[in-house]
Amino acid sequence: MSNAAIDAAPEPRTRRRRRTREDVVERIRAAARELFAERGYAFATTKEIARLADVSETLLFRYYGDKATLFDEVVTAPFNRLMEDFVALHPDPRDPNRDADARRFVRAVYTLFEQNQEMFRALLFQMPADGRAQPALPFGGLDNFFEKSTTYAAQDGATRADTAIAVRLGFGMIASAVLFQPMLFPPHTDREALIAALEQMIADMMWRGRSD
């Protein structure tokens, strides 16, 4: 073969490494978080999420079924997993050694909001003034988190106000501390001091009066 023919021959294609299921799932989740943060739930399409993840829309549907299920996986499922892990570690809410891990749970929820604050802010702006989620914004997945948290907290023998309300208020305090931080706190507020204050306030609200 002449040198000219060799020069003209096409270069062999680089074969793309076969992706594992975990690779594909994480790419889809990351793309969904990015587009939900950029466009909100209503305007982020599965077609665009698939394109950003570099997968086919068919594959996205194979793993998640629809956009609402994908939303639940990246927005509400992490909170449910945190609660499940906590209950698995402390099945008895009256365990006197539970408090330190309960404080770590508060920190974990804070960190989850912190790591995804752009997405949560974008979603928050889609909430109407009356506070009800639009039909196209399926926050119902958080009901499971609140129900499990309430059921768990109600078993510890504490005497307090409505437990279900206390659980949601505690969650709201954490969310507000992250999402409204520029409005609520001066610049350079110490992160550790803020989390410590949340831990103490939520502990006082949730567990004061507990019968050990």
TrEMBL record:
Pfam families: TetR_N. Residues 1-20 are annotated as: Disordered. Keywords: DNA-binding, Transcription, Transcription regulation. InterPro entries: Homeodomain-like_sf, HTH-type_TetR-like_transc_reg, HTH_TetR. Residues 45-64 bind DNA. GO terms for molecular function: DNA-binding transcription factor activity; transcription cis-regulatory region binding. Residues 22-82 form the HTH tetR-type domain. This is Transcriptional regulator, TetR family.
